[in-house]
Amino acid sequence: MQKIAINLHPDDEGSLKIISALIKKAHAKGVQVVLPNYPIIQKDFSSLIAKHDTYTNVDIAIAIGGDGTFIRTARMFAASNIPILGVNRGRLGFLNEFLPQEALDYFDEILKGNFTFSERKMLRANIIREGEQFTAVDYLNDAVITKGSFSRPIRIRLELNDEFVTCYSGDGLIIATATGSTAYSLSAGGPIVLPDDESVFIVNPICPHTLAIRPMIVPDSMVLSARVVTSIENLLLTVDGQEAIALQETDIVHFSRSSYVVHIINHPSRRYFDVLRQKLGWGANNTE
C-alpha cells in the first residue's frame, strides 16, 4: 500500500477530524494520502490536495459521508478498479459499512492489505439521439426516466434485445442494479436483489396506470431500450440521483451491463442481512 485517496461531502466539516486521524495513521506507515480540492480542505490540508489527473491514481479510496458520497466516489474511481472503504456519516449509510471509530480501528489492517471486498457491477445508460450516440453514463444504483414537473402521465415503450415488451402509462421508469435494489426501486415496490447475484438488473415502472405491469428482473446480458412516446417537454434521465440529463422526445435510452465494477471493502463482522435489519428494518419482528 503506497497511496490512498480520501473523498468526503464538500460541506461536511465534521469529517475533518476523522480525516486527520486517518492521515496520521497512514503517514505513520509511510503511506501517502491525497485529498480533493474542496474549500474545507484548503485551510488545514492544502499540501495534500491532489492534482486532478493524479487523484484517482491510488491503491484504495475512502468515502466519508452518506450513501450519496459513496456513490459519487464509486463513479469517480470506477475506471481505477480499486477497493473503496465506506465510512458512514450520513443518515442511512447502507453502502458505507463502517462507523467512523470502526474504520479507525480497522485501518491498520486495511493498510496491510488484510481485508476482503465484494464486487458490485455497474450499469450503463446510452442515449441515442437522431440515430447517433448522444452520451453514455455508468451508474452504481439506478437511472430514472421521469417527466420533470409535469403532473400528467407519460407513455414509455420498452424493448429487450430489440423485441417489443410493452408500452405503458405512468410516472416514469427505474432501471436499478442489484446494489440499487434497496434504494429508490425498493420505495417504488421493487424487489430486494442480493448483491451476490450481480448478473441481473431491475426494470421497475413508477406508478403504472394498470394492474398488469409489475417490476421485472432481467439478465444483464440483455439490452433494455426505453423510449418516451408521449409528446412532452422537460423529460429527464437522472443517474444515481446526482446527474440529470435532459431527454428529447425522440431519444432512445439503452440500458446494459457496464464494463466497470465497484469493489467495496467488507466490514469484518457485519453481513448483508445485518444491514437490512438494522438500517431498513427488514424482518424487524423476527428474531433467532
What does this structure look like?
The protein has 288 residues and is of the alpha+beta class. The chain has two domains: 3-116 and 266-280, Rossmann fold (3-Layer(aba) Sandwich), CATH 3.40.50.10330; 123-259, Tumour Suppressor Smad4, CATH 2.60.200. It is 18% helix and 38% strand. The protein contains six helices and 16 strands. It has helices at 15-28, 39-42, 67-76, 100-111, 184-187, 272-280, and strands at residues 3-8, 32-34, 60-65, 83-88, 117-129, 132-139, 142-146, 154-160, 163-170, 172-177, 200-206, 216-219, 224-228, 235-239, 243-247, 252-265.
Biggest sheet, open or closed, and with what strands and sense? 10 strands, mixed
Shape: elongated
Terminus-to-terminus distance: 40 Å
Content-based structural category: alpha+beta
Helix content: 10-25%
CATH architecture grouping of the largest domain: Sandwich
Provide mean pLDDT, rounded.
91
Rg result:
20 Å
* Total number of domains: 2
Number of helices: 6
State the CATH class of the largest domain. Answer: Mainly Beta
Low-confidence stretches: none
What is the helix/strand order? EHEHEHEHEEEEEEHEEEEEEH
Q: Indicate the proportion of strand residues.
A: 35-45%
Number of strands: 16
